[in-house]
Amino acid sequence: MLIKLFLFFILNIKLFVIVWCSEKNATGNEGQLIFAHVLFRHGDRTPVDPYPTDPWRDLKYWPTGWGQLTNTGKKQHYELGQWLRKRYTNLISKTYSRNEIFIRSTDVDRTLMSALADLSGLYPPTEKDIWNPDVNWQPIPVHTIPEVNDAILAAKKPCPAYDYALKKLKTSEEYTEINKKLKPIYNYLTKNSGKNVNTMTGCQYIYGCLKIEQLYNKTLPEWTSKVYPEPLATISARAFITNTYTPQLARLKFGPLLKEMLTRFQDKFNRNLDPDRKLWIYSAHDTTVSGFLNTLNLFELHNPPYTACVLVELRVINKEPFVSIFYKNTTAEPIAMNIPNCGQLCPLDEMFKIYEPVLPVNWESECRLSMLQMSYVDVEIKSTIGVAGISILLILSLLAIIIAVLLYKRHSNYHDDKWYYRIDG
Ligand SMILES: *[C@@H]1O[C@H](CO)[C@@H](O)[C@H](O)[C@H]1NC(C)=O
Ligand SMILES: *[C@@H]1O[C@H](CO)[C@@H](O)[C@H](O)[C@H]1NC(C)=O
Ligand SMILES: *[C@@H]1O[C@H](CO)[C@@H](O)[C@H](O)[C@H]1NC(C)=O
């Protein structure tokens, strides 16, 4: 009887601890950290493509070439690597092992180089890793795949359903209204930059270029003082959420990345991960960091700076798996994010439930777009279209299907080619 009472008491304490832990703020010190995903933006770079009237549009000012990582950028990532070494000192060994860590980058010079610079801070050779006493560096593999095949990190693998939904958003009432309000700024930029600007993304492009030139102490043309930094900084920040503005867009754009992380957590916790790794690094862009955070509903409008870094960590607390997300966008310690309706330590099962709307079940098939699906989406989104609209859409769909079938018959060889391409990816 006493033993039973005692057991009852212990079990309740355990329950209490679980509940209490899930509500308390994450400091990064609770439970046992067993896996971390790190997603970061590259470091300092040169402008990608200056606007036509830019006085600094000449490679003599940017000898490393357009869109390239600079020495400052290398240093920034080296320092982030050192910081990661400190944070994960108990998670990964001091010496490199492929069974502990995997690094993936988008297939872009500056992200590949950032990953390598980061790794030189994370794994300075010690003990058995020392291969040349004159070189305080060791080679560590960084994996990538061509962007056009990359549905996970670059998120640029073609997805017709996504393109269609994005186009719809951009012509929606809300976006038309925003663009109408910004029209005077678009006109001003078009007139002065020599580039036709008619979207928020167009503004973001010019903002990014001016910001880099300012960082490099280049005198900006007089006309820019009217729009830089504001309102361009705010418009640029707003442009970051367009790609993931609706759950459908988020699901098709960064859903695969989120699903990959959560599934990997599950495998890790269930001891199904092989090799049984502990750290996974993704080297990518400001659009990746902002889009991923926005997919999680955790993005506050801002322009993610160089080396902005999202940490998605798995901890075991009383034998249960918990997820924490931290955002590090300064040199200070990272900010613990409050996962919607779950807090800073969220049970892994809950993560799957909370984010179900943005986790694709079968991305490839969800990306397919038939004309019939199209009209269905149209009807769903715009109930105001009404019955007449539905009929017109159905007729249009039928016509489109007939045309599609005819085209298919004419171009069946071409179709085979495409199919082969996809398998290849
Ligand atoms: C948790 O963090 C929030 C801000 O993120 C703060 O307002 C709150 O007081 C913290 N709670 C505890 C228990 O530390
Ligand atoms: C720009 O000027 C500031 C202040 O004089 C200086 O600290 C900084 O190093 C300069 N930046 C570059 C890239 O030359
Ligand atoms: C850093 O991130 C926080 C939280 O998203 C945001 O509010 C802030 O503006 C960001 N600051 C910088 C410098 O990026």
UniProtKB/TrEMBL annotation:
Segments passing through the bilayer: 385-408
Gene3D superfamilies, per this entry?
Phosphoglycerate mutase-like
Q: Which Pfam families match?
A: His_Phos_2 (PF00328)
In its keyword annotation, does this UniProt entry include Transmembrane?
yes
Signal peptide residues on this chain, from the entry's feature table: 1-21
Say which family it is in. Answer: Belongs to the histidine acid phosphatase family.
PANTHER family to which the protein is assigned, alphabetical:
ACID PHOSPHATASE-RELATED (PTHR11567), PROSTATIC ACID PHOSPHATASE (PTHR11567:SF211)
Task: State the protein's name.
Answer: acid phosphatase
